[in-house]
Amino acid sequence: MKLTNNKIILLAVLIMTSFSALALKDDTNQPINIVSDNQSLDMEKSVVTFTDNVSITQGSILIKANKVVITRPPENSGKKETVEAFGTPVTFHQKLDNGKPVDGKANKVHYDLGTEFLTLTDNAELKQFDSKINGQLITYDVKKQQLKANGNGKSRVTTVLIPSQLQQAKGK
Could you tell me the pTM of the whole model? Predict the structure, then answer.
């Protein structure tokens, strides 16, 4: 019975620490709900995998993917969990503290909680209202609040800015 309780505690800790770092103020205090057709836990490798129709919600955050893998590093390594999501595409939606929505998508999303670094790969897009940025690779350093987008040599980075929406953002 003790081993089963330890498994449940490990699973809960992995999930809660992984997605709370992605959320904003109000969202981080909300429960995390993960629904999928299948899930598995590898205690030896400290990996939780959710597959098929994965839906993750926490407050205003909604993430949809085909597969989500949460990996916990070895104890005392000084590292934190990583989250990888795969889909065609992985999608996410969140309402910011100012009430404005942010949407994103990519075929692969990687988030390292230790470095607070988000990577969107393959058909990546970040969008707020009609303004958006598309590229093969989009990275976001959460601590530094720095975004970079790259093409793949065949396609270039595309950015669309809507002046009226930029003005509204300045006014708030």
Answer: 0.74
